[in-house]
Amino acid sequence: MVAEHSSKNFGITLRVWRQAGPTQPGRFVDYQSQDLNPNMSFLEMLDVVNDELTRKGEEPIAFAHDCREGICGTCACTINGKPHGPGKGVATCQVYMRAFRDGDVVTVEPFRAAAFPVIKDLVIDRSAFDRIQQAGGFITARAGSAPEANALPVPKPDADLAMDAAVCIGCGACVAACKNASAMLFVAAKVSHLGLMPQGQAERDRRVLAMVGVMDAEGFGNCTNQYECSAACPKLISHDFIARMNRDYFTASLRAAVKPASSGASGGA
Amino acid sequence: MSPLGNLLRSSLGRKLIMALTGVVMVGFVVGHLVGNLQIFQSPDHLNGYAAFLHQLGPLLWVARIGLIVSVALHIWAATSLTLENKRARGNEPYAVKTWLRASLASRAVRWTGYIVLAFLIYHLAHFTLGVAGSDHFKSNLPTYTMQEDYRVAGFMVVKAGAVVADVHSMVILGFQSVAVSLFYIIAVGLLSFHLLHGIDSLFQTLGWRSTNWARVLRGVALAFCVIYFVGNLLIPGAVLTGAKGLRPGFSREAVKTTSVQR
Ligand code: HEM
Ligand code: FES
Question: For the whole model, what pTM was predicted?
Answer without folding.
Answer: 0.92
